[in-house]
Amino acid sequence: MVYYTQNSERKVTIAQSAIAGGIASSVTRAIAQPLDVLKIRFQLQLEPIQNGSKYSSLLQAISSIAREEGVSTLWSGHIPAQFLSISFGVVQFSTYERLTQTFQRNEPQFYINNKNYLNFCNGAVAATFATILSYPFDTIRTRLVAEQKINKVYKGFSDSLLTMIRHEGASSLFKGIVPTIAQIAPYAGIQFYMYKLLTESIFNRLSLFQRKKAIGSVIETTIIGNVIAGSIAGLVSKTCVYPFDVIKKRLQIQGFQQHRKAFGRQMYCSGSLQCIMLTINEEGVLALYKGYGPSLVKAIVVTALHFTVYDEIKHVILQMHE
């Protein structure tokens, strides 16, 4: 992350931040997709872990999926997932930079006095906007991951899109969007708040995490500092909002349960509140944290990679224009 000394701020353009966000999201998705597949499989099973459930641990799940459906299944839904990640990253980072630069330009003193609060708010607004625009890719990705590969329902991304619209209506592409927005706003807000706090107020002041070569008078944290900050931001944010993610995934497969009978019992619900109550009543409160292990690993890896790759691209751009 870049730390700016007073009156020496160097900015990337909105277009450059959009490109950097898209590339960072694509790279992160390619690396972390297997963790996402594991997370979704755990979230969708109703049986208690290690008590009749199909998947009982990370290693057992990996082995079971690879043996029964093939190793490539760990990258199920990768095409819509890439569309989701790239579109989300482009909109999120460009919107965040636009909001931040607007405050810096029009209300500089207010920005300085409330920087941490604005980082939270700008991150939350940017992620909400990005979620609404990219959400259909998320629903399709979930369907492709949820199906059993030895008994496929969809032939691929295009077929799943057209089939859902034809049989369930276009609104089916937005199933679960209410808990998603309830989750993503605080999730992204906490991510940006924690990452910026660590890189702009703590790590950048420690010689251990300062780059040896500065861009003008701008002090930057090292890649290691960015990775550590991103990991902490991912851990804290995911832990705070995880139950919303479980409910979202269960809502996204409503109308698709008949194709998942090989995975065990299925849940039928018509809205967020009913889904929450059924989950707690039938599986217990801790069921809201099903899949938390692989999800936490994914959140740490993804957040660290996302912010680090994004900031490294920004660093290269600033160097080119020095």
From TrEMBL:
Solcar repeat ranges, renumbered to this chain: 12-102, 114-201, 221-316
Primary localisation category: membrane
Keyword Transport in annotation: yes
Keyword Membrane tagged: yes
Bilayer disposition of the protein: Multi-pass membrane protein
Cellular component aspect of the GO annotation: membrane
Compartments in which it is found: Membrane
Domain of life: Eukaryota
Swiss-Prot/TrEMBL GO biological process terms: transmembrane transport
PANTHER family: SOLUTE CARRIER FAMILY 25 (PTHR24089)
Family per similarity comment: Belongs to the mitochondrial carrier (TC 2.A.29) family.
Name the UniProt record assigns to this protein: Mitochondrial carrier protein
Originating species: Pieris brassicae (White butterfly)
Lineage: Eukaryota, Metazoa, Ecdysozoa, Arthropoda, Hexapoda
